[in-house]
Write a structure and sequence with these properties.
By secondary structure, the protein is of the alpha+beta class. The protein has helices spanning 8-14, 20-26, 31-42, 54-61, 63-74, 120-126, 128-138, 163-182, 210-228, 255-263, 272-281; strands spanning 77-79, 84-86, 94-96, 99-102, 107-113, 142-149, 154-160, 242-243, 295-296. 41% of the residues lie in helices and 13% in strands. Mean pLDDT is 78; it is low at 1-6 and 287-299.
Amino acid sequence: MQMFSADKNTRIERRRFIGGSDARTIMGDDENALLRLWREKRGEVAPEDLSGNLIVQLGVVTEHLNRHWYERNTGHALKDIQRRVTHPVINWMAATLDGMVEPGGAVFEAKFMLPWSFSEEGAAEKYMPQLQHNMWVTNATTAVLSVITGGGKWVEITVAADSLYQHLLLTAEKKFWRCVESGEPPRLFFAEPPRPRIEAIRVVDMSSSNTWAEFAGLFRQTRTAFLQRPPSPRLRLNSPIRRSRWSPPYGPHSPERVTARSAMPRSPVGSTSSARLWASTRSRPCKPPPSTRSQDLFG
C-alpha cells in the first residue's frame, strides 16, 4: 500500500504560515509538541515524518471515501478540495481545506478516528481549534466535521463559529508567531474550547430490529392499564415532611458522654473531689425548644 507524506517543497512552505492543524497544537496542552512546532516554524528541525503513523495514513486514504459518503448521505456537493486559503489581512494565517459545502459555504473537515473511546462530544472538542481556525480564515459561520470510525460508523457534526473562542485563538496564534519571529520559546495558552452543541434528539431507523417491535407491542398493551391505575397513597406530591420526635445529640447515654466519664481520673470513694467529678460528668435532662418538636422542612 502506498504511503503518503509531504514533499520537501510543501514542508518548507508550511513554515511560512499557521494552519488549522497547527492551531490544535497551539491551543493544546502538550508543551513538547508546542516547542517542536515552534522549532519547525523557525527551520531548526525538519517536520515530523508521519508516513509511518498508521492512524494518520488511515485518515489520508479514507479522505476521498469520507467526502463521497458525505455527499451521498446529505445530497450536498463539495468544492475547493485541498485548496489553500490565506487570511485577507493576516498573511501568516492560512488553511488547507478538505472542502467547502455547497450550498451554504460551510467548512468541511474529514477525519478518521478509532471507535474504542469515540464520542461526538470528544471529537468536536478535539478538532474545535482547527474548525474555528478554518472558519476564521474563510469567514464562514459553520463547519461540518465528517468522521469515519474504525468500527464502520459515519458521523456528521455541525459546529457554529464562536466569536469569543476565535478571539482567544487569534491571540494565542499571534503570541506564538511573535515567538517564532523573536526566537523566544512559546508557552501553553490554557484556553478551553467551547462545549459543542450536539443534537439531543436523533432519528434512528429500528424497522429491522425485532427487539424494538417486541418492546413497542408491550408498551401499547400496558399503556392503558398504566394510565388507569389509582395513585399510590405512599407517594403524594406537595405533602410536607414533618419530624415528630426530637432526640438530643448529646444525651445521657451517648458514646461521647460515656467516653468522657471513662477518661476522667478516679479519686478515692467518698472524697470531695470524687463527688465533684461525678457531679460535673453526670447528664442533665436536655429539653428541646418547643418550636423544634414539629418542624416543617418545606417551610
